[in-house]
Amino acid sequence: MDPHIGQVVRHYRRVMSRTLKIVLPLVVLVAVGVYLAGSFAGASENDPPPREPVVLPSQSVSPSSPTTGSSPSTDPSGVPVVTPGPVDDDDDDDDHDDRHDDD
């Protein structure tokens, strides 16, 4: 092999090594920057239009009147409103622990 070719190959490897150390990270950074810029630009174009706030009608229920069960009433628009009352769901059969065998 010609000694001149060996020098050219070593020079080529050294130059490519330096070039790759600089250019490759630069290419990656530019690609990531372009991706992020496109993501931010695209995200700002798709904003939905502002919506009107939802206003709920106020209910005039006096908390001092006790209710048992459910009591139907009618709101100002004529729609029946059912207000649930307290429910006694205490089951006396469920007072003991079934997880342990007490033999």
**End-to-end CA span:** 95 Å
**Which word captures the global form?**
rod-shaped
In DSSP terms, counting alpha (H) and pi (I) runs of 4 or more, how many helices? 1
Strand content: 5-15%
**N to C succession of SSEs:** HEE
Please mark out the parts with pLDDT under 50 across 5 or more consecutive residues, or reply none.
Answer: none
Radius of gyration (Å): 39 Å
Strand order of the largest sheet: 1-2
User: How many β-strand stretches?
Assistant: 2
Mean pLDDT: 75
Overall structural class, as computed from helix and strand content, comes to mainly alpha
Please give the share of residues in helix.
40-55%
- Quick one: biggest sheet? 2 strands, antiparallel
Describe this structure in words.
- This protein has 103 residues and is mainly α.
- The chain has a domain of 44 residues.
- The model has no long low-confidence stretch (mean pLDDT 75).
- Strand 1 and strand 2 form a beta hairpin.
- It comes from Nocardioides luteus.
- Keywords: Membrane, Transmembrane, Transmembrane helix.
Concise overview:
This protein has 103 residues and is mainly alpha-helical.
Describe the secondary structure blueprint for this structure.
Blueprint: H1 3-45, E1 71-74, E2 80-83
Antiparallel strand pairs: 1-2
Features:
single chain; 103 residues; mainly alpha; 42% helix; rod-shaped
